User: Fold this.
Amino acid sequence: MITFYDLAANGPKTWSPNPWKTRYILNYKQLPYQTVYVEFPDIPRVSKEAGIGPSSFEPDGSPNFTIPAIVDDATGVALSDSYKIAEYLDKQYPDTPKAFPPGTEALQAAFYQNFYEQVRPLAVIFVPLIPNILNEPSAKYYNRTREVIFGKPLSQVMPVGEEFGKNWEKVTAMLDSLNNWYEKSSGKFLAGDQPSNGDFVVGGMFQGARTVCGEESESWKKLEVLNGGRWTRLLDDLEKYADVSK
Assistant:
């Protein structure tokens, strides 16, 4: 059994793009797992208790513990970082569908880097809304830590008025570029007829945007029709791997 650590919320079971990537892959591979939901302030303690090391280190050398994370009872492996988890699951369970189909590993890495270099305009639309779906301890933690990251309160991060229009132009340009990747595929996914890690990355981002913004929000209604509805179709195509009952 694999224990999968996800982020807690006060409504939706799964909302964050990064844990979504791991959940998609666990479901895609049909691996048995159970979910433990963790509040933001508890991540370091829970990680240490489970034997999960930090995913990175701050410039001052302090450890950075993150979610998603897994503990695999079959092997004793405990690790965080969705990309490393995907690589581990492919290697450890070779008879399951691949997150990185053979021959695509380098392209998957290039896509991953390109995606995260461009995604900020989309992220600033829904990141300021995240505290609205968190329990109080996590909401306070999130507001405090993101104010440090952005250099201003989250309430001031969301672009408004003319700035919203300028940011939306960046969003559409980013998604046009992303759409070009998909249009070059011979199938409905990046690597053809079967999903791969890149699709789970994109799907996770749109799952997060839809959940945090709300399906009736102006932002989501604008997103879901971009590129001919490409992104809602992608979520529909990934729905069979979106089980949140475990």
